[in-house]
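Contributing new records

If you add data, match the layout below exactly. Sequence lines come first and carry their own label; structure lines follow with theirs. Keep one chain per record. Anything else will be rejected by the validation script.
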Amino acid sequence: MAVSADLRDSFERLKAELLTDLGPAEIEPYRQLAERRAPELATLANTFGMEWEDLSLEGGVEVTRLWPRGSVAKERSGTIVFLHGGGLIAGCRADGLDVVLEPAAALSVEVWTVEYGLAPSTRFADAVEQCLTAVDAALSAGSGPVVIAGQSAGGGLAAAVTLLDRDRTGGRLAGQLLICPMLHPASDTTSMLQFESDPLWSRISNATAWRAAQGKAEQHTGIGPAGQHERLDALPPTFLDSGSAEVFRDDIVSFASRLWAAGVPTELHVWEGGYHGFDGVEPLAPVSRQSRTARTTWLGRLLSGGIS
């Protein structure tokens, strides 16, 4: 199974640009590289016609709130709380933000993007708590139903936040949009072995990141990776996607199957020839446009009451 022809050039370029097979000593250089590559929030906001403001929430959680230029809260169809990627060890609230700003602009949706703490200084469980604080604030703001979304590591955090919200409150989220999510620390699936040297995220990098993020905290808090959670019932409608040529493919497909078995309305897309995060790297490639259209369509159906 190979990367598709229209994504191959960017895939080869990334092999030369990115740090791969991260060990503990490479975490800081990887984080610094991610900082240099991060887009500017102001540029993203202008590109998608958004106004924005920075907010500091309870516990010092920092978020940026964006909304369609000229709109008022009562005109917005809902809110997305977005969690960025970066393997739990890198990234910032601007990373990958375009993947939700595009549907938000089309559907008049507000976006809250969260600056959660990174491993190893912040454990996975604590990052989940920080993200739930942002969800609490977005719900209190009252700009329609709230959907949590995340890309890669952010997708795994989003799924864990949804589970924690269900366990503590019975579930207040309208949906979860999980883009190539990092759901499970296991490294023995077929796709993990097939694509173990993926330049965007390898098997070795995945193991290093989970060790840095987990420590022993989850043994005491009960807040762990969503892919390891035993109960997936009573969750909101879920969108999941993956490339066919990426390490997380099998974990994502398995998670979708378990959601269906639990009776959760779930839409799954596995994009042929896509590597991890392909549509963020090559947003104009045909398969990238298809993937982004699918997310916008699902979100529009959800917010208009077409999915329940």
